[in-house]
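Encode chain A's predicted structure.
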Amino acid sequence: MRMLLAVLLAVGSLAAASYQGPRPAKPDVLYLLHADNLVETEQQTATEEHKGSGKKAVATYVLAGAGSPVKTPLASPVFIIQPKTLDVNQLGVYRMESREGRREIVLNSKKQGHGITLTVAPLEEGLYRVEVADSLPNGEYVITPQGSNLVFAFAVY
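Encoded structure for chain A:
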């Protein structure tokens, strides 16, 4: 009987423990976690430009502006998201290059990644922590759902 009571108390205390940090103001938006503050990432829809044909076809994805107004000093940034329609397991990270007053990246049609590792962990029901596991050099970056031109832009400085 004592064993059962101890187990029930342990399970009850685990259920009572939940995420106590800041919460996103909007669903389906990535927020940079800076200490106890959330900073909304820059949301844009990347414009697609195609060059070449067949196996040599490449797509350039372009964002307006030479740099994101959302900046972090963290080389391994952490994000919080409350997904409503986004699948957090389909997010990818890409580095953008700033050229001629805009940001761009050239990819093949499959949007293959560049070795940037992203981990996703649930904080509680409907709330996730998204973390760039690799150390990012200074520059412009986007996180985007696979198969979508929606991007969440930020810069590491």
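The chain has one domain: 22-156.
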